[in-house]
Amino acid sequence: MTKEDKQLLLKDLCARIPYRTFVCLNPGAYNKPETCILIGIDDEQVYLNIDSDPFRIDHIKPYLRLMSSMTMEEQREYISVARGMSLDNPSVLVDWLYEHHFDFRGLIEKSLALVAPEGMYK
């Protein structure tokens, strides 16, 4: 993982902490991949719901949704949020994307994230 990729992943993960984001820890228990919930980040150490000890950033990948997986209902909501957004509060649209676990930074394409299985975030 390049330094730039690591910084991009850290930036993205920090913003996802409040949204109950699932991640794949690899290796997890018994040296097998394990699905966990992101609960915190300190520098390049990631805290998950399975242990009080941190894990290295290069051992986790968040499960995210492709933008193309947006349902028609979500598309309408997204457009509504975008239209209602003001220049005083542009973060409302980005917050909506984080809340719905969309990969709008291209992390999946860069192999920094995994495609969330259908129904993971319902």
Please outline the helices and strands.
Blueprint: H1 3-16, E1 22-25, E2 34-42, E3 45-48, E4 55-56, E5 60-64, H2 72-84, H3 91-99, E6 114-115
Parallel strand pairs: 5-6
Antiparallel strand pairs: 1-2, 1-5, 2-3, 3-4
How would you sum up this structure, described in words?
The structure is a single chain. With 122 residues, the chain is of the alpha+beta class. The chain has one domain. It has three helices and six strands; from the N terminus they run αβββββααβ. The protein has helices at residues 3-16, 72-84, 91-99; strands at 22-25, 34-42, 45-48, 55-56, 60-64, 114-115. Strands 4-3-2-1-5-6 form a six-stranded mixed beta sheet. Strand 1 (22-25) and strand 2 (34-42) form a beta hairpin. The relative contact order is 0.18.
Rough outline = globular
The largest sheet is: 6 strands, mixed
Could you give the distance between the termini?
31 Å
DSSP strand count = 6
| Rg, nearest Å | 15 Å
Domains, number: 1
Classify the beta-strand content into a percent band.
15-25%
Strand order of the largest sheet: 4-3-2-1-5-6
Structural class category: alpha+beta
| Tally of separate helices | 3
Key phrases:
single chain, 122 residues, alpha+beta, six-stranded mixed sheet, 6 strands, 30% helix
Summed up:
With 122 residues, this protein is of the alpha+beta class. It has three helices and six strands; from the N terminus they run αβββββααβ. The longest helix is centred in the N-terminal third of the chain and has 14 residues, at 3-16.
